[in-house]
Predict the 3D structure of the following.
Amino acid sequence: MKAVLLFCLAFVCCSYAYGQSSGNIRTEIKGRTLDTNQIVYDERGNALHYYQYEKLLHTGDYGIKGIPAADGSGMKYYITKVSQEENFRRFEAVKELMAIKSPLLHEGMALDVTPLLNTINRKNLDNKVIVLVFWKADCPPCSESFASLNEFFTQIYNPDHIVVIAITPDNEKIALAKLKEKPLVKARLLTDADDIIHYYQLNNYPAYVVADKDHIIRFALNGI
């Protein structure tokens, strides 16, 4: 269960930190948008450019808050460490907002693995945490999330306890070309998977489902 929680916290907090518009990453701050050209200051007052603070935001452990400038010139933005309590509040709020609407993929339900069994032996799923990643090659947020997922998967103490399945409607050639560009490690790839996607009644990409070793869905989330 700890592995499931860490995965979802890492992903959801990362998703919360980022928004996309016209192909450019922008940071949301309490309902307002901070342009990537905006200067952000660290706790010592040092000015940071986007390329310097975006890696901190990407961890999900940091946020940005605005404080009125002392000279009355407007807002100054600071990057700050997010407390564990605030992280959990953020996680719960974002989890509700991003919940998958499919009636088959609700938190607390048993994951129906039936459509997966055409290509994966049931014994390879038994007593394993199952992570389903629904994605498409022409969905930039899908493949952009892979780096964060890779980083998390490499930190898992016992990766044999987790099965990662990357499910896409794309054919194998298209999917493998994208994965060569944006790898997703430790994942079993299922291509031409329209039947699986329709079975689960999914309409949006990316989508992420995490079920525990008893195959009870703990999180089912749409991506950004």
Q: What stands out?
A: Confidence is low (pLDDT under 50) at residues 1-7, 9-33. The helical segments are 2-17, 50-58, 84-97, 140-144, 146-154, 172-181, 194-199. The domain at 100-222 is CATH 3.40.30.10 (Glutaredoxin).
